[in-house]
Amino acid sequence: MTDSPRKIELLDASYTYVLEHGLSALSLRPLAKATGTSPRVLLYLFGDKDSLVRELLARARRDQLAALSTTLDQGAHDTFDALVDRLWTFLSAPEQRSMVRLTYEAFLHSLRHDPGPWQGYAAESLRDWLDLLVRAQPDTPRATAEVRATRALALVRGLLLDLLACDEPERVSEAAVSGG
């Protein structure tokens, strides 16, 4: 079943809203007001708030994967370290802060004892990103590629958390590119 144009329009507007305001404290009234609709229409189109959150999380993952794939494809002939640097440069750019913040918010919520609509987000996101980094190493044995991808991803994610937590982008970026 395909989604109605109105549902797609409201999902897009809702995604823009949560990029700015986050998902944790999402309330249908402010969301409806910001997207030019009513809570009743949102509930009609998405079923309930949890279903809307799940669709927003799926949208976030799709957008992230598309952006990361494009970023990695641009350096398809680079070394793996150069690809990781490219990934860092893309994800640490100021215009990506809202997407990165939303990713961490969803990631951490999905790790709670009762994750609700965030169930599985961290594991699915991790697998998506690892697969991209493994595929970026076509001439490397899979086991080695997975280890390298895991290490690179852990470094990038840790540095991104540091970047979100502080107002020192130069220091964090220097740590990302210097390798110690």
From TrEMBL:
A Pfam family of this chain: TetR_N
Keyword DNA-binding: yes
One Gene Ontology term of the molecular function aspect: DNA binding
DNA-binding feature ranges: 27-46
Ranges of residues in domain HTH tetR-type: 4-64
Keywords noted in UniProt: DNA-binding
Source organism (scientific name): Herbihabitans rhizosphaerae
SUPFAM superfamilies with a match to the protein in the record: Homeodomain-like (SSF46689), Tetracyclin repressor-like, C-terminal domain (SSF48498)
Name listed for the protein in its UniProt record: TetR family transcriptional regulator
Ranges in a coiled coil: none
